[in-house]
Amino acid sequence: MEFKQIQQVIEIAKTASISKAAKNLYISQPNLSLSIKNLEMELGATLFFRTTKGIELTEFGQQFLTYSKPVYNQFLQLEDICKNVVNEERRIFSLSTVTLKFVYNIFIDIYIKYEKENIYFSHNEGSTMEVIEDVFNQKSEIGIVINTSLNLKSMKRILKVKQLEYNALSVEPPYVIVSKLNPFFYKDLHSILLKEISSYPFIASYGDIFYSSSNEMSKIRDITQLACSSKIYVSNRASLYDFLYKTNAFSICSNNELAYKDKEAYEKIRAIPIKSPGFNFEIGWIKRKNYNVSPIAQEFINKVINTISK
Fold first, then answer.
1. CA dihedral 74, 79, 82, 87 (to 10 degrees)
2. Closest Cα partner for 206 from 130, 141, 304?
3. Rounded CA gap, 208 and 98, in Å?
């Protein structure tokens, strides 16, 4: 796969036309068609199909575009970033993190503090595995990850192979989260058994720790199988919360009480501690081995520690 082929897929999807895309990319239509055909052969799947309205993405093509478009956009920004670093001696603070509202708030605080200085800020959200890849590929200086006690060993083996260093930040009990559309939102409960809410749909995001097929995750699969109703998987955590707002589904997450003592993480969503869950969450941060983090990254980590530690 070549970078130009990603660009071609994006352009065809945007124009819904091979001929228009070829014109915009300044190549011939036959060459563009051949390039896409070669890419499909390499991937082993079809990216486009013809309709009366033009060229449309297949289901696989839509997934390919979802993952490749951010990579393409970041590549386009790379030249400008490098110019700023070389010509202006611009500092960089790049963070990749799982979706944790308090982490995002701290990132904003750091930005506001230094917004008038010549600093390039980068904030990327994704699954724990995506965060690991970002730090490994030096897309981000540091990463914030979350795992359960059930799959922590597995993650640490991956980090060892990739020469990344893990630093634990806190251990968190798991919570059930529901919106106002779920009756448990209004119940006077200090904790909840998972089987009590199992009649409602369970929701998780792709790449989440509750979306796994590894043998070490059998306990988590047992947990999710308690949901007697439907199971819903969405593309990211933001979509997960949006789905919760509009349905009576439930999900499982961490909810550091110190981090959210002044303000709840999300309005109209209640977090209820799980009784006898059999596992915990652990939040940690990662960096490349033998790498000294920048002063601004260290300041960020210190703020995270002060926010979630007693």
1. -140
2. 130
3. 9
Instruction: Point out which residues pair with 176 in neighbouring strands.
Output: 252, 272
156 exposed, middle or buried (CB, 10 Å; 0-12, 13-18, 19+)? middle
Instruction: Say if residue 199 is exposed, middle or buried (CB neighbours under 10 Å; 0-12, 13-18, 19+).
Output: exposed
Q: pLDDT for 153-207, tens place per residue?
A: 888 899 999 999 999 999 988 899 999 999 999 999 999 998 888 889 888 876 6
* Segments in the chain forming alpha helices (H): 3-15, 18-25, 29-43, 59-88, 101-114, 128-136, 152-161, 218-224, 237-246, 295-308
Tokens of 296: 């601004």
- What are the pLDDT digits (tens) for 7-34? 888 888 888 888 988 888 899 989 988 9
In angstroms, rounded to a whole number, what is the distance separating the alpha carbons of residues 66 and 300? 30
